[in-house]
Amino acid sequence: MTYIARDQWEQHYSDGKNFRQVGERERALLAEHTSAPDGGGRALDVGCGTGGMTACLASLGYTVDACDFAESALDRARKEHAGVEGVRWLHLDIERDDPAPLCEDGYDLVVLRLVYPFFVDRTRILHSLGERLRSGGALVVVTPVAEHTPEERRGIALDEEEIALLTVGWERTQRFDAGQLAVLILRGPCHADTRAVERQRPPSGPAATAALAVVTDEAGRVLLGRSHRGMWELPGGKTLGAERFEAAAVRELAEETGLAAEIENAYVVTMLADAAGEVPRLTAVVRITAWSGTVSNPEPEKFARWEFFDLHALACVGDVFAPAAAAVDAVWPEVIPSLPPTTSYPVAVDQPPVPGEPAEAVRLRRAMAETVIGDGWAVSAPVGDALRTVPRHRFAPEKNLKTAYDAGDVAIVTRRDEAGRATSSVSAAWLQADMIEGLGLEPGAVVWEAGSGGYNAELLAHVVGPGGRVITSDIDEYVVRRARRFIAEAGSGRVTVVHGDAAHGAPALLVPRGGFDAIVITYNCWDIAPAWKDQLAEGGRLVLPLELGGYTRAITFQRAGDVLVAEKFTHCGFVPAQGAHARTAAVADLLDGQLQLRFEDGPAGSVEGLEEALRGRRHEIATGVTMGQGFYFGSLQLYAATTVPGFCRLAVTADQESSVVQITTGSDAPAVLGGASLAYLTYAQTRHSEIREEREWEWYVHAFGDQGPALGEKLADAVRAWHRDVRGDGGRNTDPAVTVHPAGTPDHRLPPGDVVDKPLCRIVVQWPGRGALLPSPIDRVEARVAVGEGM
Description:
The chain is built from 18 helices and 36 strands. With 791 residues, it is α/β, with parallel strands linked by helices. The strands form seven sheets. Strands 22-21-20-23-24-25-26-34-36-35 form a ten-stranded mixed beta sheet. Strands 3-2-1-4-5-7-6 form a seven-stranded mixed beta sheet, covered by helices on one side. It is globular and about 95 Å long.
């Protein structure tokens, strides 16, 4: 039986035919080496057929999910094993269908009995099933081996080369014999770090030119071939004479895989220059955007087989031919990490977007969108529709689908500096939706986004529609290259990606007459560039993450002449600014680096004598202000930062031997410094209960030094004033009125309020109760910050 089509298997089981029954040796090996955990476990039987292995697993104490793509097999399994408890019979093609029916919590045991050789994308399936294993779990492959299988039936068996490849990357492997079957028990993560390698025999001659074809299927997976040189390769080869690179890629694709493509659907996107030994090598990366046919293996002497790979799994496939790895990186930067440097020359080509995504991505995207909409972050139909439509995973191809479509607070980091700090990311979906809503976009709007990545720009493009346009820029050339490639692959055609420092504004040639309708900045801004206001149309909106006292809020501003007027606030965090806006806060280390004072809006204060004070008596001041579980206290942080003289932040950077301050390591708290004395704000639980809603905390001030009690009273008074004037019923707070004025604006031309001076602007913060008239209340959705997450 070497057939693989579903209808053939349906007929096979409908005709009453069976497959090889589970033998006693197999049962004994499973019982000895894969017994169920105490209390039972969950197992997955892939390609269960009529259920013989499923019944065996149930007898070992497992709850079993048994799946097969032949409904006729499942019909027989249900009848023949009707008395077996704890089984779910799932009609599922594990290779092609959305895996939604599988257990979300994973499995203690996954069994592939007599099914692995029938898979087309063996490596992808093995990796995806390995990712579903729980800690300590095992994956078992039971398979015929080639040496015991007649020549005419070798298609159902594995040779030793295939068995060796199957076991690569597992932490521990065991192999047993069971009646001419091999039983492979694999444990640990299925992860073999990808490595770019060269062929043993480099090309000869003065130079070599070649073309590599990059092809994806209907699910967006890339085609690679397992060569007999022990590595994965792209379709491709040397050019013939004066042959065009596009023609060479199309020809090689047909010769090696049996797939047909038209030269009109072949685009050279990058030229790679390197050397193989002493021979210079020039390789064209050719993106094939459309093809026809069925993958085959016309050159079995060169390749063992061809498979389609998930992009996020390319980091752990083992050895990849070096030019192929570089070509994949040229199309999807960073899906294969830590590649050796290659000189790459991107080609300015108008490549059409390439469709393709699995059904699982569609389902997860819809679920993410509904969560964001249901939580109140996407309130307009265009923004909600953008979340449902734009394929987020294609702008973070190195991440699995579950991570890409996480609807929580997950930001996908896509770039780090040498110190490991994030410098570029795909922000949490709810925050992206909230900031886009703040822009108040109309169809046909022209928007500038500073801080690129591709996905957010495409959300904007979807909202502004066919008549609109989005300019997205970034200071990092790598981020620009990455965004351009992803937008070429999955974009709308309405986004232009440019390189530049946003501190100087958008490129002048791209600024529309009258200014942008909206501008969004997607990195932390300590200051506000005059160009942002100048390039914004009158009445247009600017949304940016603004730091005040080190606390970041995504604030929606509307331009009114030379003034920016705040309309909306959201608690958030973004990557730091680079270039002209880069800034490092002044800090002072204390107690051998255990503590640190951060001066976010000014020079470092004097800490002379402070360490001695910290080792002395601690004063405690109760504020009388309490809060319940999950209360949002972000406005208290901002209130203290903008109203209390001498404000700074006290951070705990290492475990304290004597617990000098009551702050969790890695967290910080509002503080006041003065005269070798310090006071900081914390809270303590004052009401305990098993019922979350009945728990309560009170704000306290801890103070050190001779002037500590006086400083502490100032901080406590600020808490009480915030409670009296700002804190609202039901955990809702009143936001301040904030206006941004040009630097140099005289005091008498500023409205009343607390002034925060920056080098490029003057920010006036008007809190209730501080002698300022406020506009009407600002509608906002409370940020998701809970007690216990740090200050």
